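Take a record.
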Amino acid sequence: MPDPVTTAPPADPNSARPAPDTTPAPPVRVALLGIDGSGKSTCARLLARRSPAARPHVVLSCLRPHENPGGPLGELSRHLDVLSAEADRLGSPDLKLAVLYLQMCTYGVAERFFTGQQTGAIITERHPLIDTLTYLPLYRRAIGAVVAPGRPAVLRRQLARMPAPAVQAALAWCQALARRTGGRAPRLDTLGEELVGLLTLPPEAMVSEFATRFAVTPPDVAILLDIDVTEALRRLRARDRRLEPHERADLLPLIRDGYDKALRTFTSVRVHRVRADHRPPHDVAAEVARLAGL
């Protein structure tokens, strides 16, 4: 006689449901771009004030991680800031570019650190990939005016006259970068010329090269704060500090055009242009927040 058919009890509908995913969504990464005087810093501060308490917005400096409260690499950043000012004082564009590169190599460390801090959005003034494509052509012109067969020796003499702790910190960072990439350590006396040599690469190849070097990826959203050069210069001259070498009437239009050209390479990035002159800062920040989905 066959066994009777056993009927299984009805399944509990709740037991079949997968457990809810409590992993927080990654922060949206927003890069604020624009020539000096366009209002990037002011906009970033206003966006940070609008952030929710549960998953706040974090504002990061692309170049100076010592300005990121609670972030990593603060001591190194202060030393690099010293070297950057020294390069300006000496009028050394190739050394300035070398230090700028080392500063940009700190950004990926800071971005990864704050990504793991229950952050809702990471807002950065500038972005290492986009700004490299924007500014590198200007440095090529400046470095071309000073480069000569004995130039590395000149840079070594300049470095020898700079504060030793800052130089030692920069050299240690070069060694750390070599360990990270498995390559050779950057040399401060030849790095600037090496970097402008990468301009021979196609734009997409340049992005790939610097993404590997900086250990970063493009932002999710790029906001270009567009401003008339005359208004930008008026704002810059009203500040209580000396102008940077590139903050000039003949160079700011080139930087403005450089951003337009660079952004065309980043096809995966949502790009928005926002007029930032002759408008209240709160209005600009509100438009940026809407466009970035903050």
Q: What stands out?
A: The two ends are 71 Å apart (CA to CA). Strands lie at 28-33, 57-61, 121-125, 221-226, 270-275. The first strand starts at residue 28 and ends at 33. Residues 108 and 189 are 24 Å apart (CA to CA).
